[in-house]
Amino acid sequence: MLSDVPIGEASRASGVKVATIRYYEQIGLISAPPRTEGNRRLYDRRDIERLLFIRHARDLGFEIDAIRTLLDLQDNPDQSCATADAIARARLSDVESRIAKLLSLKVELQRMLECTAHGRVDQCRVIEVLGHHEECMHPTH
Amino acid sequence: MLSDVPIGEASRASGVKVATIRYYEQIGLISAPPRTEGNRRLYDRRDIERLLFIRHARDLGFEIDAIRTLLDLQDNPDQSCATADAIARARLSDVESRIAKLLSLKVELQRMLECTAHGRVDQCRVIEVLGHHEECMHPTH
DNA sequence: CCTACATCCTCTAGCGACTAGAGGAGCAAG
DNA sequence: CTTGCTCCTCTAGTCGCTAGAGGATGTAGG
């Protein structure tokens, strides 16, 4: 079951869009599956697991190139997992720095929106703060 | 002072790269400045302030289209600031949801890296967790 | 005046990771 | 046999730049 299914079903089963599956094949992230006589792609359970793996990794923000490496590691499980560790660790620190940056953006945006007098633009903090950047990018607040 | 300067100086003064300034002109985010006899662009203080405004807004993650609207509001300050407010509010909620997502990614990545036995790939949690997505996308952990 | 060298100009193509759409073929059900 | 869905390939567009080619202009020193 879930063997020799067409692309639409593989898409439904994996959560990866049809066009994206074809794109992954095109860039060589997945290999080209066999075809029916009518030239339609046929996927089996392993293919769908790969797609799920890819989707999960993409959801976690891994780049295609990193996923390429991770898939390769999955295929050759007798290697050291140092590479996989390094990739995940790099991703973690990326996520952490993004969080830090977004938190400071959040503070600044909230500050911008501290304008209870919803009047005209010339009294509005949003435009004002954007115009007076000097006072904002410094970590003095 | 800072009037009739060439693009390189406008770039240095605003922190927006030369190529990016030309790109902004091309897409109509800023208007085409006058030129010298030798066909070089000349920027004045107002232009540089616009570039700073844009840069600050970009740093805060506003999209070009949003910035277009914000610049327009800045030029017509007799309008209601509701639009500016809405844009900033939308940006804030975007930032907040990104933070939330990244925080849960962080947790999942940390869980992936809880593998102290740095052995071979077949014992490695990184690959394993990516392969067994079912247990991860559910909010049960 | 000549020569370096920096800066400027336009134009085109590339990035990442898809997404959308045109135009056509295959296939299952009624 | 026709309707309507899925599938095929191919191309171009998205966003916000960035890089590079190939050439013109401007400035400082010898």
TrEMBL record, chains A, B:
Domain HTH merR-type: 1-73
This protein's UniProt keywords: DNA-binding, Transcription, Transcription regulation
Keyword Cell division attributed: no
Pfam families, per database record: MerR_1
The UniProt record lists the keyword NADP: no
Name the record gives this protein: MerR family transcriptional regulator
Organism (species): Phyllobacterium leguminum
InterPro entries: DNA-bd_dom_put_sf, MerR-type_HTH_dom, MerR_fam
GO MF entries: DNA binding; DNA-binding transcription factor activity
Matches recorded under PROSITE patterns: HTH_MERR_1, HTH_MERR_2
